[in-house]
């Protein structure tokens, strides 16, 4: 019942804010009209009043129907980025830096200066790093990490050196009839067990600095919102790397979208559907590959299927669109018979190596990019056929 109480509190607060905005806007508009202003001027006054009030909204853990994973709410404060995102330390062109921007999602790390495009950031960060806000007398982080929504604990890893994530928790959520996965990494402690159902806001663990390359001063929670690529991951990981202790919930089998961007979009429009948010993303490159069987990804995420196509068996190949970070945006039938995958749309940054702009999924230089080894492995994962971790399941 606590979940519903939390939702009720959020709805009550939203209604109160809306009522205030309407009252302020109408009052201001009334003054404008009484002073001889036009309806357009009155409308402008209303919009200005609403915009001003929105900027004054108190920062809370709520982002529409979801909540931030810790009590750090600086994401929703004006110029709050440096207090929300955890910085990294690096030297660039012999100058030491501590950029907070590198805690954001996207290509925010490892800058390279190019002649054609200036500075290009070449390393992709798949989640967001949220700073600790409280520490004890020894400097240890004390922030509690909580579930962004109700769901099922799909996996917990309590062995710090078994993953670059350190100790981490994966929670499966059913959103719009499809499974999405929130991931909470670098924890110092894990408070839940695999298979446990959790309410929204349930304590999952504590902010820490387990995992590769993190120390006490940079303690944070690495947070991701993901799709799961393939139930047949075990076959793929054994083929390419020889083994995996995390089952299908390895980071290699998940692709994340911009969690902070989604939170901010939900704060502006609490009714925004996740599929709407994802389908607003622009393709950065496309890859065509042979149709060797049904794609497990499409069974899980019907919104990725081609529109208006009921029979795909007559097409010999697929063409899939990807964001710059490799998030799959959807497929369409491809009418050429292919023996191997090929790039059909190169990234737009001409003159810059595709290795720099696609996290080494592509090689070469636009407009003639080709699949690099990492990209070939990724397409192989998407194409992989066979029984999944829990047995064979019908794919689309």
Notes on the protein architecture:
This protein is an alpha+beta fold. The protein folds into 3 domains: 2-57; 64-274, Glucose Permease (Domain IIA), CATH 2.70.70; 281-383, no CATH class. The chain is 25% helix and 28% strand. The chain is built from 9 helices and 21 strands. Strands 7, 8, 9, 10, 11, 12, 13, 14 and 15 form a 9-stranded antiparallel β-sheet that branches. A 4-stranded antiparallel β-sheet has the order 18-17-16-19, with no helix packed on it. Strands 1-2 form a two-stranded antiparallel sheet. Helix 1 (2-34) packs antiparallel against helix 2. The model is unreliable at 1-15 and 388-396 (pLDDT under 50).
Question: What are its keywords?
Answer:
396 residues, disordered C terminus, 9 helices, single chain, 3 domains, four-stranded antiparallel sheet, alpha+beta, Glucose Permease (Domain IIA), nine-stranded antiparallel sheet
Write the layout of secondary structure elements.
Elements: H1 2-34, H2 39-55, E1 62-63, E2 66-67, H3 81-84, E3 90-92, E4 95-97, E5 106-114, E6 118-125, E7 128-131, E8 144-146, E9 151-157, E10 167-175, E11 178-190, E12 197-198, E13 203-207, E14 220-228, H4 233-240, E15 254-257, H5 259-268, H6 274-279, E16 285-290, H7 296-300, E17 317-322, E18 328-334, E19 342-345, H8 354-357, E20 362-363, E21 370-371, H9 373-383
Antiparallel strand pairs: 1-2, 3-4, 5-6, 7-14, 8-13, 9-10, 9-12, 10-11, 11-13, 11-14, 14-15, 16-17, 16-19, 17-18, 20-21
């Amino acid at each position: 019942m606590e979940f519903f109480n939390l939702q009720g509190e959020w709805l009550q607060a939203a209604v109160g804010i809306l009522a205030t905005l309407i009252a302020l806007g109408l009052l201001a508009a009334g003054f404008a009209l009484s002073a001889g202003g036009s309806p357009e001027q009155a409308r402008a006054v209303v919009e200005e009043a609403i915009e001003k009030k929105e900027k004054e909204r108190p920062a809370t853990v709520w982002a529409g129907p979801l909540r931030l994973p810790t009590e750090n709410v600086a994401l929703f404060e004006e110029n709050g980025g440096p207090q929300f995102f955890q910085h990294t330390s690096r030297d660039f062109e012999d100058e030491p830096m501590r950029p907070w921007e590198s805690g954001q999602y996207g290509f925010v790390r490892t800058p390279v200066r190019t002649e054609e495009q200036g500075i290009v950031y070449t390393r992709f960060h798949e989640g967001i790093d949220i700073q600790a806000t409280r520490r004890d007398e020894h400097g240890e982080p004390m922030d509690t990490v909580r579930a962004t929504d109700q769901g099922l604990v799909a996996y917990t890893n309590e062995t710090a050196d078994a993953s670059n994530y350190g100790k981490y928790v994966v929670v499966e959520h059913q959103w719009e009839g499809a499974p999405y996965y929130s991931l909470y990494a670098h924890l110092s402690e894990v408070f839940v067990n695999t298979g446990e159902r959790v309410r929204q806001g349930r304590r999952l663990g504590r902010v820490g600095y387990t995992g590769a390359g993190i120390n006490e001063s940079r303690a944070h929670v690495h947070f991701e919102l993901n799709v799961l690529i393939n139930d047949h991951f075990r076959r793929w990981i054994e083929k390419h790397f020889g083994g995996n202790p995390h089952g299908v919930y390895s980071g290699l089998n998940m692709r994340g979208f911009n969690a902070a961007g989604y939170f901010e979009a939900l704060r502006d429009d609490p009714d925004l559907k996740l599929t709407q948010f994802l389908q607003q993303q622009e393709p950065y490159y496309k890859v065509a590959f042979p149709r060797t069987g049904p794609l497990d990804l499409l069974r899980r995420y019907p919104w990725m299927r081609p529109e208006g196509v009921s029979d795909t068996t007559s097409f010999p190949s697929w063409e899939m669109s990807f964001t710059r970070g490799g998030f799959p945006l959807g497929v369409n039938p491809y009418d050429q018979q292919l023996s191997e995958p090929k790039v059909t749309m190169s990234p737009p940054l001409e003159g810059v190596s595709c290795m720099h702009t696609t996290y080494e999924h592509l090689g070469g230089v636009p407009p003639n990019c080709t699949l690099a080894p990492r990209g070939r492995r990724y397409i192989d994962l998407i194409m992989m056929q066979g029984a999944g971790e829990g047995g064979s399941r019908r794919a689309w």
